[in-house]
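Trying the structure run again after the queue cleared.
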Amino acid sequence: MKSIFEKTTRNELINRVSSLNENCTAQWGKMNVSQMMKHCTQWDEMALGKKKYKQSFLGKLIGKWAIKDMMKDEPMKKNLATVSSFIIKSNPNFTEEKKKWIKLLNEYENFPNDSFIHPFFGAMTKEQTGYIVYKHIDHHLRQFDV
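Done. Tokens:
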């Protein structure tokens, strides 16, 4: 399983993000490329401990079970529901979001958030976080065919 904490994996993701352009169209889902990048920057800010979210009630009920399924070494399913805080309705600036996302990806080199609490899955180990972060980013890059 790949992890955002591995330098080669992180560089691969940064190269894929760098290849995004304003003309990229989604293979599935409702977001445009700028909205997807904003969604991912918000997600990464959460994982890096820059923004905190409480675990949802549903997450408290089934989050520990659901993370076991998410940890399988297979791509995320298309059109999965997201936490409402991460639904982007505005049309963010493409260039600014891309630059911000790459900066955040580089910050995983010195991961500061060993007590990460996902709003659905709950408390996660560093190993789980590294894999889920990779899997989330890969999912959205595949969504835009990069």
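The chain is about 50% helix and 5% strand. Worth checking whether this holds up in the mutant runs.
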